[in-house]
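Box 4.2: Ligand-aware structure prediction
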Amino acid sequence: MKILFVFNSLNRRYCGQIFRYDIKSFRRQYSKNEDRVADLAIIGIGPGGLYGALRAKEIGMKHVVVIDKLPTVGGTCINNGCIPSKCLIKFSYNYHQVKSGVFASQGVVTSGLKLDLIKLMSSKSKIVANLSDHMTSILKTSGIDIVRGTAKISGCNKITVETDDGKRRVVEADNIIIATGATNRPFPGIEIDEERIVSTAGVLNLKTVPKRLTVVGAGISAIEMGSAWCHLGSQVTIVSNDSLIGAFKIDEEVRSKYQKILEDQGMKFVMDTKILGAKRSGNVVKVQTEDVRGGKKKEMECDVLLIAVGRIPYTEGLDLERVAIKTNKNGYIQVHPNYQTSTPNFYAVGDVTPGPMTAHKASEDGMTCVDNLCGISAHFDWINIPLVIYTHPEIASIGKTEEELQEEGIPYEVKWCTFNENARARTDLDTTGCIKALFCPHTKMVLGTHIISQHAGEIIHEALIAHQFGITAPQIGRMVHAHPTYAKIYKTIYGR
Ligand SMILES: Cc1cc2nc3c(=O)[nH]c(=O)nc-3n(C[C@H](O)[C@H](O)[C@H](O)COP(=O)(O)OP(=O)(O)OC[C@H]3O[C@@H](n4cnc5c(N)ncnc54)[C@H](O)[C@@H]3O)c2cc1C
Protein backbone atom coordinates (compact mmCIF):
# COMPACT_ATOMS: atom_id res chain seq x y z
CA MET A 1 0.00 0.00 0.00
CA LYS A 2 1.48 3.29 -1.08
CA ILE A 3 0.80 6.19 1.22
CA LEU A 4 1.74 9.82 0.86
CA PHE A 5 3.47 11.09 3.97
CA VAL A 6 3.59 14.84 4.40
CA PHE A 7 5.50 15.77 7.51
CA ASN A 8 4.68 19.05 9.15
CA SER A 9 7.15 21.89 8.86
CA LEU A 10 8.24 21.83 12.47
CA ASN A 11 9.01 18.14 12.52
CA ARG A 12 12.72 18.36 12.98
CA ARG A 13 13.73 15.17 11.23
CA TYR A 14 11.63 15.49 8.10
CA CYS A 15 11.51 19.27 7.87
CA GLY A 16 9.64 20.43 4.76
CA GLN A 17 10.03 17.18 2.80
CA ILE A 18 7.40 15.13 1.06
CA PHE A 19 7.91 11.38 1.04
CA ARG A 20 6.23 8.56 -0.79
CA TYR A 21 6.57 5.47 1.37
CA ASP A 22 4.81 2.24 2.11
CA ILE A 23 4.14 1.30 5.77
CA LYS A 24 7.27 -0.92 5.90
CA SER A 25 9.66 1.84 4.86
CA PHE A 26 7.90 4.20 7.29
CA ARG A 27 8.56 1.67 10.06
CA ARG A 28 12.21 1.41 8.97
CA GLN A 29 12.47 5.18 9.06
CA TYR A 30 11.17 5.38 12.60
CA SER A 31 13.14 2.39 13.80
CA LYS A 32 16.35 4.30 12.99
CA ASN A 33 15.45 6.64 15.82
CA GLU A 34 17.55 5.26 18.63
CA ASP A 35 18.14 8.56 20.42
CA ARG A 36 16.39 9.74 23.57
CA VAL A 37 14.03 12.10 21.75
CA ALA A 38 10.67 10.39 21.46
CA ASP A 39 8.83 10.34 18.14
CA LEU A 40 5.64 11.12 20.01
CA ALA A 41 4.69 12.09 23.58
CA ILE A 42 1.07 12.12 24.71
CA ILE A 43 -0.17 13.92 27.82
CA GLY A 44 -3.14 11.99 29.25
CA ILE A 45 -3.87 8.25 29.08
CA GLY A 46 -7.65 8.37 28.69
CA PRO A 47 -9.26 6.94 25.53
CA GLY A 48 -7.79 9.74 23.36
CA GLY A 49 -4.19 9.26 24.52
CA LEU A 50 -4.39 5.50 24.83
CA TYR A 51 -5.70 4.79 21.34
CA GLY A 52 -3.45 7.47 19.86
CA ALA A 53 -0.39 5.77 21.39
CA LEU A 54 -1.42 2.31 20.22
CA ARG A 55 -2.06 3.59 16.70
CA ALA A 56 1.37 5.26 16.67
CA LYS A 57 3.00 1.94 17.54
CA GLU A 58 0.87 0.11 14.98
CA ILE A 59 2.01 2.50 12.27
CA GLY A 60 5.60 1.92 13.29
CA MET A 61 6.79 4.75 15.52
CA LYS A 62 9.75 3.57 17.54
CA HIS A 63 9.61 5.64 20.68
CA VAL A 64 6.21 6.62 22.09
CA VAL A 65 5.77 8.04 25.61
CA VAL A 66 2.49 8.47 27.46
CA ILE A 67 2.20 10.57 30.63
CA ASP A 68 -0.59 10.69 33.21
CA LYS A 69 -0.93 12.06 36.71
CA LEU A 70 -3.35 9.31 37.72
CA PRO A 71 -1.74 6.19 39.19
CA THR A 72 -3.89 3.99 36.94
CA VAL A 73 -4.30 3.96 33.16
CA GLY A 74 -7.61 4.79 31.44
CA GLY A 75 -8.37 8.43 32.25
CA THR A 76 -11.87 9.50 33.22
CA CYS A 77 -13.40 6.70 31.16
CA ILE A 78 -11.98 3.78 33.11
CA ASN A 79 -11.33 5.42 36.47
CA ASN A 80 -14.30 7.74 37.17
CA GLY A 81 -16.60 7.65 34.16
CA CYS A 82 -17.92 5.15 31.64
CA ILE A 83 -16.79 1.93 33.31
CA PRO A 84 -17.62 2.42 37.02
CA SER A 85 -20.91 4.12 36.11
CA LYS A 86 -21.95 1.20 33.90
CA CYS A 87 -21.09 -1.25 36.72
CA LEU A 88 -23.24 0.73 39.15
CA ILE A 89 -26.11 0.88 36.65
CA LYS A 90 -25.97 -2.87 36.00
CA PHE A 91 -25.67 -3.98 39.64
CA SER A 92 -28.39 -1.61 40.85
CA TYR A 93 -30.74 -2.86 38.14
CA ASN A 94 -30.12 -6.47 39.17
CA TYR A 95 -31.06 -5.56 42.74
CA HIS A 96 -34.14 -3.69 41.54
CA GLN A 97 -35.28 -6.63 39.42
CA VAL A 98 -35.17 -9.01 42.37
CA LYS A 99 -36.71 -6.47 44.76
CA SER A 100 -39.55 -5.49 42.47
CA GLY A 101 -40.58 -9.14 42.01
CA VAL A 102 -39.65 -9.41 38.33
CA PHE A 103 -37.54 -12.52 38.98
CA ALA A 104 -40.21 -14.03 41.24
CA SER A 105 -42.79 -13.57 38.47
CA GLN A 106 -40.56 -15.78 36.30
CA GLY A 107 -40.36 -18.48 38.98
CA VAL A 108 -36.89 -17.43 40.12
CA VAL A 109 -37.75 -17.15 43.79
CA THR A 110 -35.19 -15.50 46.05
CA SER A 111 -35.60 -14.93 49.74
CA GLY A 112 -33.75 -12.85 52.28
CA LEU A 113 -32.88 -10.14 49.75
CA LYS A 114 -30.20 -7.83 51.13
CA LEU A 115 -28.17 -5.07 49.59
CA ASP A 116 -24.47 -5.26 50.47
CA LEU A 117 -23.35 -1.87 49.17
CA ILE A 118 -19.73 -2.38 50.28
CA LYS A 119 -19.50 -5.58 48.23
CA LEU A 120 -21.26 -3.94 45.30
CA MET A 121 -18.73 -1.09 45.35
CA SER A 122 -15.76 -3.41 45.72
CA SER A 123 -16.97 -5.52 42.81
CA LYS A 124 -17.18 -2.32 40.74
CA SER A 125 -13.65 -1.33 41.82
CA LYS A 126 -12.30 -4.77 40.84
CA ILE A 127 -13.75 -4.46 37.34
CA VAL A 128 -12.24 -0.97 37.01
CA ALA A 129 -8.81 -2.16 38.26
CA ASN A 130 -8.84 -5.22 35.99
CA LEU A 131 -9.62 -3.17 32.91
CA SER A 132 -7.00 -0.56 33.80
CA ASP A 133 -4.38 -3.29 34.37
CA HIS A 134 -5.34 -4.89 31.07
CA MET A 135 -4.81 -1.60 29.21
CA THR A 136 -1.51 -1.07 31.05
CA SER A 137 -0.23 -4.44 29.91
CA ILE A 138 -1.33 -3.72 26.30
CA LEU A 139 0.65 -0.44 26.43
CA LYS A 140 3.68 -2.20 27.89
CA THR A 141 3.66 -5.12 25.46
CA SER A 142 3.36 -2.60 22.63
CA GLY A 143 6.59 -1.04 23.88
CA ILE A 144 5.04 2.25 24.94
CA ASP A 145 6.81 4.12 27.75
CA ILE A 146 4.49 5.04 30.63
CA VAL A 147 5.50 8.02 32.76
CA ARG A 148 3.46 8.78 35.89
CA GLY A 149 3.27 12.38 37.02
CA THR A 150 1.91 15.83 36.24
CA ALA A 151 3.02 17.23 32.90
CA LYS A 152 3.77 20.82 32.01
CA ILE A 153 4.85 22.09 28.60
CA SER A 154 8.34 23.52 29.02
CA GLY A 155 9.41 24.13 25.43
CA CYS A 156 8.58 23.53 21.79
CA ASN A 157 9.52 19.86 22.04
CA LYS A 158 9.70 19.51 25.79
CA ILE A 159 7.48 18.39 28.63
CA THR A 160 8.55 18.56 32.26
CA VAL A 161 6.92 15.93 34.46
CA GLU A 162 6.68 16.17 38.24
CA THR A 163 6.78 12.46 38.93
CA ASP A 164 4.98 10.77 41.80
CA ASP A 165 8.21 10.36 43.78
CA GLY A 166 8.71 14.16 43.77
CA LYS A 167 11.36 14.07 41.03
CA ARG A 168 11.44 15.92 37.73
CA ARG A 169 11.76 14.25 34.37
CA VAL A 170 12.06 16.00 31.04
CA VAL A 171 10.47 14.25 28.07
CA GLU A 172 11.60 15.45 24.64
CA ALA A 173 9.52 14.58 21.60
CA ASP A 174 9.21 15.51 17.94
CA ASN A 175 5.44 15.76 18.29
CA ILE A 176 3.23 16.16 21.34
CA ILE A 177 -0.47 15.30 21.67
CA ILE A 178 -2.49 16.91 24.45
CA ALA A 179 -5.23 14.51 25.60
CA THR A 180 -5.93 15.91 29.06
CA GLY A 181 -9.71 15.50 28.90
CA ALA A 182 -12.27 17.43 30.88
CA THR A 183 -13.34 18.06 34.44
CA ASN A 184 -16.73 18.59 36.08
CA ARG A 185 -18.19 22.03 35.51
CA PRO A 186 -18.35 23.73 38.93
CA PHE A 187 -21.65 25.22 40.06
CA PRO A 188 -20.99 28.80 41.20
CA GLY A 189 -21.47 29.12 44.96
CA ILE A 190 -21.93 25.41 45.66
CA GLU A 191 -18.99 23.64 47.26
CA ILE A 192 -18.41 19.94 46.63
CA ASP A 193 -17.42 17.97 49.76
CA GLU A 194 -17.84 14.52 48.10
CA GLU A 195 -19.89 13.42 51.09
CA ARG A 196 -23.22 15.28 51.07
CA ILE A 197 -22.61 17.48 48.04
CA VAL A 198 -20.99 15.27 45.44
CA SER A 199 -19.65 15.31 41.89
CA THR A 200 -20.13 12.55 39.30
CA ALA A 201 -16.96 10.97 40.72
CA GLY A 202 -18.22 11.11 44.33
CA VAL A 203 -21.66 9.71 43.50
CA LEU A 204 -19.97 6.56 42.21
CA ASN A 205 -18.53 5.88 45.66
CA LEU A 206 -21.26 6.71 48.18
CA LYS A 207 -20.98 4.63 51.33
CA THR A 208 -24.70 4.36 52.03
CA VAL A 209 -27.83 4.63 49.90
CA PRO A 210 -29.13 8.18 50.42
CA LYS A 211 -32.81 8.31 51.34
CA ARG A 212 -33.25 11.42 49.20
CA LEU A 213 -30.89 12.15 46.31
CA THR A 214 -31.34 15.42 44.44
CA VAL A 215 -29.53 15.82 41.14
CA VAL A 216 -28.74 19.20 39.64
CA GLY A 217 -28.77 18.77 35.85
CA ALA A 218 -30.73 16.54 33.47
CA GLY A 219 -27.98 15.50 31.04
CA ILE A 220 -26.55 12.05 30.45
CA SER A 221 -24.57 11.54 33.68
CA ALA A 222 -27.30 13.15 35.80
CA ILE A 223 -29.93 10.75 34.46
CA GLU A 224 -27.68 7.68 34.56
CA MET A 225 -26.61 8.24 38.16
CA GLY A 226 -30.13 9.24 39.25
CA SER A 227 -31.51 6.06 37.71
CA ALA A 228 -28.85 3.82 39.34
CA TRP A 229 -29.48 5.18 42.85
CA CYS A 230 -33.24 5.09 42.28
CA HIS A 231 -32.90 1.34 41.61
CA LEU A 232 -30.96 1.02 44.86
CA GLY A 233 -33.84 2.64 46.76
CA SER A 234 -33.19 6.40 46.83
CA GLN A 235 -35.98 8.90 46.23
CA VAL A 236 -34.43 10.69 43.28
CA THR A 237 -35.34 14.20 42.18
CA ILE A 238 -33.80 15.67 39.04
CA VAL A 239 -33.80 19.48 38.97
CA SER A 240 -32.95 21.33 35.78
CA ASN A 241 -33.53 24.67 34.12
CA ASP A 242 -34.08 22.79 30.84
CA SER A 243 -37.55 21.69 29.77
CA LEU A 244 -36.49 18.26 28.56
CA ILE A 245 -34.16 15.60 29.91
CA GLY A 246 -31.37 13.90 27.96
CA ALA A 247 -29.29 15.42 25.20
CA PHE A 248 -30.32 17.77 22.39
CA LYS A 249 -29.16 15.22 19.78
CA ILE A 250 -32.09 12.99 20.79
CA ASP A 251 -35.50 13.61 19.24
CA GLU A 252 -37.72 15.67 21.56
CA GLU A 253 -40.77 13.42 21.30
CA VAL A 254 -38.60 10.42 22.21
CA ARG A 255 -37.09 12.34 25.14
CA SER A 256 -40.58 13.09 26.49
CA LYS A 257 -41.55 9.41 26.30
CA TYR A 258 -38.28 8.47 28.00
CA GLN A 259 -38.96 10.90 30.86
CA LYS A 260 -42.40 9.36 31.34
CA ILE A 261 -40.84 5.86 31.58
CA LEU A 262 -38.36 7.04 34.22
CA GLU A 263 -41.19 8.78 36.13
CA ASP A 264 -43.09 5.48 36.16
CA GLN A 265 -39.98 3.92 37.73
CA GLY A 266 -40.17 6.44 40.57
CA MET A 267 -37.84 9.24 39.48
CA LYS A 268 -39.15 12.77 40.01
CA PHE A 269 -38.39 15.60 37.57
CA VAL A 270 -38.53 19.27 38.49
CA MET A 271 -37.88 20.88 35.13
CA ASP A 272 -37.71 24.57 34.11
CA THR A 273 -36.26 25.23 37.54
CA LYS A 274 -33.12 27.14 38.34
CA ILE A 275 -30.91 26.28 41.32
CA LEU A 276 -30.12 29.43 43.27
CA GLY A 277 -27.84 27.84 45.83
CA ALA A 278 -27.29 24.90 48.16
CA LYS A 279 -25.72 24.52 51.60
CA ARG A 280 -24.97 21.59 53.81
CA SER A 281 -26.51 21.79 57.24
CA GLY A 282 -25.38 18.78 59.29
CA ASN A 283 -26.55 15.68 57.50
CA VAL A 284 -28.93 17.39 55.13
CA VAL A 285 -28.48 19.69 52.16
CA LYS A 286 -30.85 22.64 51.68
CA VAL A 287 -31.37 23.61 48.08
CA GLN A 288 -32.94 26.89 46.94
CA THR A 289 -34.73 26.87 43.60
CA GLU A 290 -36.61 29.28 41.37
CA ASP A 291 -39.20 28.49 38.75
CA VAL A 292 -37.77 29.71 35.42
CA ARG A 293 -41.19 30.81 34.11
CA GLY A 294 -43.00 32.23 37.14
CA GLY A 295 -40.02 33.21 39.30
CA LYS A 296 -41.51 31.31 42.27
CA LYS A 297 -38.83 30.48 44.85
CA LYS A 298 -38.74 27.27 46.90
CA GLU A 299 -36.47 25.37 49.25
CA MET A 300 -36.04 21.61 49.12
CA GLU A 301 -34.04 19.24 51.32
CA CYS A 302 -32.08 16.14 50.48
CA ASP A 303 -29.51 13.82 52.04
CA VAL A 304 -27.14 13.94 49.08
CA LEU A 305 -26.94 16.53 46.33
CA LEU A 306 -25.27 15.55 43.05
CA ILE A 307 -23.94 18.35 40.88
CA ALA A 308 -23.94 17.10 37.28
CA VAL A 309 -24.08 20.18 35.09
CA GLY A 310 -21.66 19.10 32.39
CA ARG A 311 -17.94 18.99 31.80
CA ILE A 312 -15.39 21.61 30.82
CA PRO A 313 -12.02 21.12 29.07
CA TYR A 314 -9.09 20.54 31.41
CA THR A 315 -5.81 22.35 30.67
CA GLU A 316 -4.89 23.51 34.17
CA GLY A 317 -1.15 23.73 34.81
CA LEU A 318 -0.18 22.73 31.24
CA ASP A 319 1.23 26.17 30.46
CA LEU A 320 -0.25 26.34 26.96
CA GLU A 321 0.73 30.02 26.72
CA ARG A 322 4.43 29.14 26.79
CA VAL A 323 4.17 27.71 23.27
CA ALA A 324 1.24 29.94 22.17
CA ILE A 325 -1.39 27.19 21.92
CA LYS A 326 -4.74 28.91 21.45
CA THR A 327 -7.98 28.00 23.22
CA ASN A 328 -11.47 29.20 22.28
CA LYS A 329 -13.72 31.29 24.54
CA ASN A 330 -14.96 28.17 26.33
CA GLY A 331 -11.43 26.94 27.07
CA TYR A 332 -11.29 24.16 24.44
CA ILE A 333 -7.99 23.82 22.57
CA GLN A 334 -8.57 24.98 19.00
CA VAL A 335 -7.52 22.41 16.43
CA HIS A 336 -7.40 22.20 12.63
CA PRO A 337 -9.21 19.28 10.97
CA ASN A 338 -5.94 17.30 11.27
CA TYR A 339 -5.94 17.96 15.07
CA GLN A 340 -2.95 20.29 14.86
CA THR A 341 -3.12 23.17 17.34
CA SER A 342 -2.03 26.73 16.61
CA THR A 343 1.52 25.52 17.32
CA PRO A 344 2.39 23.01 14.58
CA ASN A 345 4.10 20.17 16.44
CA PHE A 346 1.42 20.19 19.15
CA TYR A 347 -1.82 18.31 18.55
CA ALA A 348 -4.91 17.89 20.75
CA VAL A 349 -7.65 15.22 20.91
CA GLY A 350 -10.67 14.15 22.95
CA ASP A 351 -12.63 16.11 25.53
CA VAL A 352 -10.08 18.94 25.66
CA THR A 353 -11.10 19.83 22.07
CA PRO A 354 -14.53 20.93 20.79
CA GLY A 355 -17.12 18.26 19.91
CA PRO A 356 -19.14 15.53 21.60
CA MET A 357 -17.58 14.54 24.94
CA THR A 358 -17.66 10.78 24.61
CA ALA A 359 -15.02 8.10 24.98
CA HIS A 360 -15.68 6.78 21.48
CA LYS A 361 -15.14 10.22 19.95
CA ALA A 362 -11.94 10.68 22.01
CA SER A 363 -10.45 7.32 20.97
CA GLU A 364 -11.34 7.91 17.31
CA ASP A 365 -9.74 11.37 17.61
CA GLY A 366 -6.56 9.81 19.01
CA MET A 367 -6.18 7.35 16.14
CA THR A 368 -7.18 9.82 13.42
CA CYS A 369 -4.81 12.45 14.81
CA VAL A 370 -1.87 10.04 14.72
CA ASP A 371 -2.72 9.02 11.15
CA ASN A 372 -2.71 12.67 10.08
CA LEU A 373 0.44 13.41 12.01
CA CYS A 374 2.14 10.63 10.03
CA GLY A 375 0.75 11.94 6.76
CA ILE A 376 -2.05 9.41 6.35
CA SER A 377 -4.97 11.62 5.44
CA ALA A 378 -7.86 10.58 7.70
CA HIS A 379 -10.99 12.03 9.20
CA PHE A 380 -14.31 10.91 10.66
CA ASP A 381 -17.72 12.45 10.66
CA TRP A 382 -19.17 13.79 13.93
CA ILE A 383 -22.68 13.36 12.51
CA ASN A 384 -22.21 9.62 12.74
CA ILE A 385 -21.29 9.46 16.42
CA PRO A 386 -23.95 7.45 18.26
CA LEU A 387 -25.26 8.76 21.55
CA VAL A 388 -26.41 6.41 24.31
CA ILE A 389 -27.82 6.92 27.81
CA TYR A 390 -27.29 3.65 29.67
CA THR A 391 -30.33 3.56 31.93
CA HIS A 392 -32.94 0.79 31.95
CA PRO A 393 -34.32 1.07 29.35
CA GLU A 394 -31.49 2.64 27.37
CA ILE A 395 -31.98 5.47 24.94
CA ALA A 396 -29.83 5.70 21.81
CA SER A 397 -29.76 8.00 18.85
CA ILE A 398 -28.00 8.63 15.55
CA GLY A 399 -28.57 11.22 12.83
CA LYS A 400 -31.07 14.05 12.79
CA THR A 401 -33.95 14.78 15.13
CA GLU A 402 -37.37 15.74 13.75
CA GLU A 403 -36.76 19.27 15.06
CA GLU A 404 -33.50 19.53 13.10
CA LEU A 405 -35.13 18.29 9.89
CA GLN A 406 -37.92 20.86 10.27
CA GLU A 407 -35.46 23.64 10.99
CA GLU A 408 -33.29 22.71 8.01
CA GLY A 409 -36.32 22.34 5.70
CA ILE A 410 -35.42 18.74 4.83
CA PRO A 411 -38.43 16.64 3.73
CA TYR A 412 -38.95 13.54 5.86
CA GLU A 413 -41.28 10.70 6.69
CA VAL A 414 -41.69 9.25 10.18
CA LYS A 415 -42.26 5.66 11.23
CA TRP A 416 -42.86 4.51 14.80
CA CYS A 417 -42.92 1.06 16.29
CA THR A 418 -43.13 -0.06 19.92
CA PHE A 419 -41.26 -3.00 21.41
CA ASN A 420 -44.65 -4.53 22.16
CA GLU A 421 -44.38 -5.76 18.57
CA ASN A 422 -41.00 -7.38 19.22
CA ALA A 423 -41.02 -11.09 20.13
CA ARG A 424 -37.69 -10.96 22.01
CA ALA A 425 -38.80 -8.06 24.19
CA ARG A 426 -41.93 -10.08 24.97
CA THR A 427 -39.93 -13.17 26.00
CA ASP A 428 -37.88 -10.89 28.27
CA LEU A 429 -41.09 -9.47 29.77
CA ASP A 430 -39.69 -6.03 28.98
CA THR A 431 -41.55 -4.41 26.12
CA THR A 432 -40.92 -0.85 27.32
CA GLY A 433 -39.73 1.41 24.54
CA CYS A 434 -40.05 2.32 20.91
CA ILE A 435 -38.16 3.24 17.77
CA LYS A 436 -38.70 6.47 15.84
CA ALA A 437 -37.26 6.36 12.34
CA LEU A 438 -36.93 9.40 10.09
CA PHE A 439 -36.19 8.90 6.40
CA CYS A 440 -36.39 10.76 3.09
CA PRO A 441 -39.76 10.21 1.33
CA HIS A 442 -38.06 10.38 -2.10
CA THR A 443 -34.73 8.56 -1.79
CA LYS A 444 -35.69 6.52 1.30
CA MET A 445 -32.31 7.39 2.83
CA VAL A 446 -32.31 7.00 6.61
CA LEU A 447 -32.07 10.46 8.24
CA GLY A 448 -32.47 9.83 11.95
CA THR A 449 -32.99 6.88 14.31
CA HIS A 450 -33.99 7.22 17.97
CA ILE A 451 -34.58 4.17 20.13
CA ILE A 452 -35.76 3.51 23.69
CA SER A 453 -35.26 -0.13 24.66
CA GLN A 454 -33.22 -2.29 26.98
CA HIS A 455 -30.59 -2.95 24.26
CA ALA A 456 -30.88 0.36 22.41
CA GLY A 457 -27.13 1.02 22.81
CA GLU A 458 -26.38 -2.18 20.90
CA ILE A 459 -29.02 -2.15 18.16
CA ILE A 460 -28.39 1.51 17.28
CA HIS A 461 -25.31 0.28 15.39
CA GLU A 462 -27.38 -1.22 12.59
CA ALA A 463 -28.82 2.26 12.03
CA LEU A 464 -25.29 3.68 12.29
CA ILE A 465 -24.17 1.51 9.35
CA ALA A 466 -27.16 2.71 7.34
CA HIS A 467 -26.39 6.35 8.18
CA GLN A 468 -22.68 6.04 7.46
CA PHE A 469 -22.89 4.07 4.23
CA GLY A 470 -26.15 5.32 2.76
CA ILE A 471 -28.16 2.11 3.13
CA THR A 472 -31.82 2.90 2.50
CA ALA A 473 -34.86 2.00 4.59
CA PRO A 474 -36.17 -0.62 2.08
CA GLN A 475 -32.68 -2.17 1.88
CA ILE A 476 -32.68 -2.63 5.67
CA GLY A 477 -36.19 -4.03 5.38
CA ARG A 478 -35.00 -6.66 2.90
CA MET A 479 -32.22 -7.95 5.17
CA VAL A 480 -32.93 -11.19 7.06
CA HIS A 481 -32.83 -10.46 10.79
CA ALA A 482 -32.50 -13.33 13.26
CA HIS A 483 -35.61 -14.21 15.21
CA PRO A 484 -36.24 -13.39 18.00
CA THR A 485 -33.92 -10.40 18.42
CA TYR A 486 -34.28 -6.79 19.42
CA ALA A 487 -32.63 -5.83 16.11
CA LYS A 488 -35.59 -7.37 14.30
CA ILE A 489 -37.44 -4.14 15.14
CA TYR A 490 -35.77 -2.71 11.98
CA LYS A 491 -37.38 -5.45 9.89
CA THR A 492 -40.73 -4.66 11.50
CA ILE A 493 -40.44 -0.94 10.83
CA TYR A 494 -38.91 -1.01 7.34
CA GLY A 495 -39.98 -4.40 6.04
CA ARG A 496 -43.66 -3.71 5.65
C1 LIG B 1 -19.62 9.79 35.20
C2 LIG B 1 -19.21 9.74 33.74
C3 LIG B 1 -19.71 8.74 32.93
C4 LIG B 1 -19.34 8.68 31.58
N1 LIG B 1 -19.86 7.69 30.83
C5 LIG B 1 -19.55 7.63 29.51
C6 LIG B 1 -20.05 6.58 28.69
O1 LIG B 1 -20.77 5.69 29.14
N2 LIG B 1 -19.69 6.57 27.38
C7 LIG B 1 -18.87 7.54 26.84
O2 LIG B 1 -18.58 7.48 25.64
N3 LIG B 1 -18.37 8.55 27.60
C8 LIG B 1 -18.69 8.60 28.91
N4 LIG B 1 -18.15 9.59 29.70
C9 LIG B 1 -17.25 10.58 29.06
C10 LIG B 1 -15.86 9.96 28.85
O3 LIG B 1 -15.35 9.49 30.08
C11 LIG B 1 -14.93 11.00 28.25
O4 LIG B 1 -15.53 11.55 27.10
C12 LIG B 1 -13.59 10.40 27.89
O5 LIG B 1 -12.96 9.81 29.01
C13 LIG B 1 -12.67 11.48 27.30
O6 LIG B 1 -11.44 10.92 27.00
P1 LIG B 1 -10.11 11.80 26.93
O7 LIG B 1 -9.03 10.87 26.51
O8 LIG B 1 -10.35 13.01 26.13
O9 LIG B 1 -9.85 12.32 28.42
P2 LIG B 1 -9.86 11.62 29.83
O10 LIG B 1 -10.43 10.26 29.79
O11 LIG B 1 -10.50 12.58 30.76
O12 LIG B 1 -8.31 11.46 30.20
C14 LIG B 1 -7.51 12.58 30.42
C15 LIG B 1 -6.33 12.15 31.25
O13 LIG B 1 -5.37 13.21 31.26
C16 LIG B 1 -4.75 13.25 32.52
N5 LIG B 1 -4.17 14.58 32.72
C17 LIG B 1 -4.80 15.77 32.68
N6 LIG B 1 -3.92 16.78 32.85
C18 LIG B 1 -2.70 16.20 33.01
C19 LIG B 1 -1.40 16.70 33.23
N7 LIG B 1 -1.14 18.01 33.30
N8 LIG B 1 -0.40 15.82 33.37
C20 LIG B 1 -0.61 14.48 33.29
N9 LIG B 1 -1.83 13.96 33.08
C21 LIG B 1 -2.86 14.80 32.93
C22 LIG B 1 -5.86 12.93 33.49
O14 LIG B 1 -5.34 12.43 34.70
C23 LIG B 1 -6.65 11.87 32.69
O15 LIG B 1 -6.24 10.57 33.04
C24 LIG B 1 -18.47 9.66 31.05
C25 LIG B 1 -17.94 10.66 31.87
C26 LIG B 1 -18.30 10.71 33.19
C27 LIG B 1 -17.74 11.79 34.07
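In the box above, the bound molecule is flavin-adenine dinucleotide. Residues 43-49, 67-70, 75-77, 80-82, 85, 150-151, 179-182, 200, 221, 314, 317-318, 350-351, 357-360, 362, 390 surround flavin-adenine dinucleotide (CB under 6 Å).
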